[in-house]
Design brief:
By secondary structure, the protein is an alpha/beta fold. The protein contains 12 helices and 14 strands. The strands form 3 sheets. Strands 4, 5, 6, 7, 8, 9, 10, 11 and 12 form a 9-stranded mixed β-sheet that branches. A 3-stranded antiparallel β-sheet has the order 1-2-3, with helices on both faces. The protein has a two-stranded antiparallel ribbon with strand order 13-14. The longest helix has 22 residues. The protein is globular and about 70 Å long.
């Protein structure tokens, strides 16, 4: 280093911004800045507390030592894993990759071994939590340049429910397919075992791209059983937070598509490891990302450099965003997410490639959001999964 002082982390900030996102900003004493996303929908305050605790470990740390920082935050707190701690690590990890790649003047994916594809397939949401006019929504997405969409399978549903719910699902999936667009079906963990097999059997003739979170991830044995009774590729992972969480699903051949969220599952560093682990079981990789631009950008960089990647979720126009806030509202270069023929370009800028409107972020974060998911109940007053 010719006697020069090593750069050190001097500042870590977090910003809760609409609609339900949590951004992380890291600055070094030589003026380098990186951004990441630690969004954990409905639990932002807890993640901010974990980020605050991480400052005690990271202030004064060398920002180039990304893996050391990851392992230190994961291992030295004694209690490991889970959505809150791993989401905090995720945002920090992304910001450190952003800093390092910006210093070197290259996109993050170049530091991951370079690109293995020229463009990145993507899909968008239709239907919302209470899907209704999905045919028109599918046609609108097709006009935007998408060739695939995802929709919720059902509204709230009982452990054992009316066949009408299954009939409605079949009708909606058929309408989307008739619109000339591929569709993944998200069960969102709302369906329980007594209904799940019947619902998969009902939509199987329609050839959905995948069925996501058919059961909650706390039931790996039941998911492995379902996998033996359907030809639909089974996908899950948004509620799995590390390679150790994914391991039983890989070992039991329970899933065909791994869907870790880069804002939940340890950021770029851990999701690269999850993707590599998935490849050894011939499992595809399709990161979960119904959140903000930094999380999406991180996904695109990992997708660019990952052979078993198949398709990327993006939150453009998603129902959670609302009319006044969308994917690119807090960035200065929205064109990086332009969709053409069902794909987006590889990120071209240095770092993550997202140019954050820092003034707008700071102003919005003065009144932090307190987003909570709906609390659903059945006709008899019983709680139901959202």
């Amino acid at each position: 280093m010719n006697g020069e002082a090593r750069d050190r982390i001097c500042r870590i900030e977090s910003f809760a911004v609409l609609p339900r996102w949590l951004f992380v900003r890291i600055e070094t004493d030589q003026g380098a800045v990186g951004w990441g996303e630690a969004t954990l929908e409905g639990h932002g305050e807890a993640v901010q507390g974990a980020i605050d605790a991480a400052r005690d470990r990271l202030i004064g740390h060398d920002p180039d030592r990304i893996e050391d920082a990851w392992q230190m935050l994961h291992r030295l707190g004694f209690y490991r894993g889970g959505p809150v701690l791993l989401s905090a690590i995720s945002g920090i990890d992304q910001a450190l990759w952003d800093i390092k790649a910006r210093k070197l003047g290259v996109p993050v994916y170049q530091l991951l071994g370079g690109a293995v594809r020229d463009r990145i397939p993507v899909y968008a949401w239709i239907g919302g939590d209470r899907p209704h006019d999905v045919a028109a929504a599918a046609a609108a997405r097709k006009a935007q340049g998408f060739t695939a969409v995802k929709m919720n399978a059902t509204e709230e549903i009982g452990w054992l429910d009316s066949p009408a719910g299954i009939e409605g699902l079949v009708e909606r999936v058929g309408l989307v397919r008739d619109a000339g667009i591929d569709v993944g079906v998200d069960f969102h963990g709302r369906v329980h075992k007594p209904m799940a097999r019947r619902m998969l059997q009902a939509i199987e003739p329609l050839g959905p791209l995948f069925a996501e979170e058919v059961l909650l991830s706390e039931h790996p044995g039941a998911i492995a059983q379902l996998a033996q009774h359907t030809s639909i590729p089974l996908a899950m992972g948004e509620r799995l937070y590390s390679r150790w969480d994914f391991r039983p699903f890989f070992e039991s051949n329970a899933i065909d598509i791994a869907q870790p969220d880069l804002a939940h599952a340890g950021g770029i560093s851990e999701c690269r490891r999850i993707a590599a682990m998935a490849e050894t079981y011939d499992v595809a990789f399709a990161p979960h990302c119904p959140i903000g631009p930094l999380g999406l950008a991180a996904c695109l960089h990992v997708a660019a450099a990952t052979l078993n990647f198949v398709i990327q979720e993006m939150s453009l126009g998603i129902h959670y965003n609302g009319p006044s806030q969308d994917l690119a509202s807090l960035m200065k270069n929205p064109a990086m997410f332009d969709v053409s023929n069902g794909t987006v370009a590889l990120p071209q800028g240095a770092g993550l490639g997202v140019e954050i409107d820092e003034d707008a972020v700071r102003e919005m974060a003065r009144t932090p959001h307190r987003w909570r998911n709906p609390a659903w109940r059945g006709p008899d007053g019983e709680l139901r999964e959202w």
